[in-house]
Specification:
The chain contains 5 helices and 4 strands, in the order αβαβαββαα. The chain is α+β, with helices and mostly antiparallel strands. It starts with 7 loop residues before the first helix and ends in a 15-residue tail after the last helix.
């Protein structure tokens, strides 16, 4: 039997956060690559353990090579990759949140926070910032890289 990534204490803490902070369903779409990915199995196991902690979370897994059209829909080109979407009945709403690699270490807390944001359907930005963003005239792409340094 494969050992768990999340120990009992961390699982209990996350389960408590999810029980109080998740409002609406979130679907995690995970892209793996069966033959060319050293970390995909571990990343997939971590996501399975995470999803098991709340009935508001679901996980859908795709192989990047076998499901390239679905991956293109979300602009995914590397594995492991994770897309966070809002599940509203039969519709998925993409907020553009992506994680590449294993969301462990410092990235893990960012993942938990991102799941909360998608579940609440609210970024938490101040009204003044939202108003400034509405004034943008052309699309922009914002990338945030998380690193301990």
């Amino acid at each position: 039997m494969q050992s768990r990534i999340l120990n009992d204490e961390i699982s209990a803490q996350i389960q408590q956060i999810f029980s109080t902070e998740l409002d609406k369903p979130v679907e995690l779409i995970y892209y793996t690559r069966k033959n060319e990915c050293e970390t995909c199995n571990e990343a997939g196991q971590l996501l399975e353990e995470l999803v098991s902690l709340s009935d508001k979370l679901t996980l859908r897994e795709y192989d990047l090579d076998e499901h390239s059209q679905i991956a293109q829909q979300y602009n995914i080109h590397h594995a492991p990759a994770l897309v966070l979407t809002a599940r509203d009945q039969d519709e998925l709403v993409d907020y553009g949140i992506r994680f590449y690699g294993i969301p462990a270490g410092y990235e893990f807390s960012s993942l938990i926070h991102s799941i909360q944001i998608v579940s609440k359907r609210d970024s938490g930005l101040k009204a003044s910032v939202r108003n400034e963003l509405k004034e943008l005239k052309k699309p922009i792409q914002l990338k945030v890289f998380v690193t301990p340094t």
